[in-house]
Every structure is written in C-alpha cells, then in structure tokens.
BolA domain-containing protein (Paraphaeosphaeria minitans), 124 residues
Amino acid sequence: MFLRRAVVASKRLASTMVPSPTPMEDAMRAKLTEALQPTTLEIHNDSHLHSHHKAMQGVTSKEGESVVVTSEKFKEARMQPARHRMVYALLKDELAQEGGIHALQLKTRTPEEEERQKQKEQAE
C-alpha cells in the first residue's frame, strides 16, 4: 500500500514539474495551476484515441486531453457541471484556437472527495 501511495505521489509531482511534449499541455497546466491552485493536477494526452475517427478527417484541432484536478476552489461549485464550466472558461482559448483541443475529459474533485476516493480504493 505504501508503494502505491509513493507511486501516486511521484506521478502527481512529475505531472506538475516536467514539461510536456506539447505546448498545449504546458499552457493548460499553467492556466489551471494559476487559477485553481490544485493539490492534484494530471493531464494526459489522449489524441491517439481519437485520430482515427471519421469525424476527425480534415480537422486541425487534433488534441484530446484527460484532466484530473483536485482543488479547494471546487468547494464553491458543488455540482460537476459548474466545476466543468470553470475549467472550460479557463481553457476557452485552447478549445477555440486552430490546432487546439477538440476533446476534453474532466475529473474534478475537492480534497475531501479525493480522500474519500482513496479510502474507497484502499478498501477494494
């Protein structure tokens, strides 16, 4: 169990410190970090999962991202749709620009919700 926690902690640290392979991911990380001051921020590029879709033929916005963010700021917006609107508002430029993000999957939690999730996973 300790090893699993250490791995999760190291992934979190790495996800906030290591430059990504794409400028889009770096811009997302900077905006989300500045505005939400997250305790957890994980951004995963899922573009390869969408590139073969017929709807993506000829589309220049090729990046798909999965984001997990834990922040005290989400206590203000209790419902998931409100939290997601907060994130969409922060990333509106990246979503709108040519060659930007075409898909964004979000998991938004408060620190307490994250702790409950960890406890649930440990019990399983």
